[in-house]
Design goal:
Length: 250
Amino acid sequence: MSSDDRRRDILEQLLAHGTVQSADIERRHKVSRMTVHRDLDALVAEGWAARVRGGITVSGDPSFESDYRFRALQALPEKARMAEAAAALVKDGMTVGLGYGSTVATVVPHLAQCSGVTVVTGSLPIIEAVAQIPQINLVVVGGTLIRRFAGLFGPAAEDAYKTLSLDLCILSSAAATLPDVFHPDERVVAAKQGLLKAASKSILMMGQSKLNGRALHRLCGLEEIDTLVTDQPLKDESALTLCGTHLIVA
């Protein structure tokens, strides 16, 4: 098996289980420890995972954002509650920008209950989902595909947002230490910032597990967010009060 094939297999195991151990890979592929270390180092360098003792993980590290396929399977009950709460803020006839996260994607089925809504997005899973709902108008923002994030990014996407006027945008992100919101990838940050600037109102959907961390790039501050939707009560709401951000606990 070639190194590329072996690394693809390691990645599939990683996405299925969240963490893989070096010893398991040695046994599975019958290769040396040094070969495994090179494979894992390559996956970490490409941004697929973070190092942990004895292996790599896609769970619980805000220094990177894991593959969309893995994130889409996580915290489903919490995401469902937040999606219902966020969708309740969408009114008939609105033009709504939807961000790139798996949390935001759960809003889409609820929008079928609205009349005359237009969705603007560069997220491939959201594009696919909205395309199946005839009563929702769809505007696709182009750009360069980043497969790990299942979306279209880069200058083309950023320029497209500059030409748009949205009633509302709904975003999520990888980490926050309120009042600041962060993301580890500058390409994702640039696209989401474009979406924020294009919208009159904004909703940030973030579960409690993400509200106690930081990542490399600052996406925005709470002063740019009208409503924070989360899944558990906050211990300290002072940052929201100071910034005038409304809190919804789903």
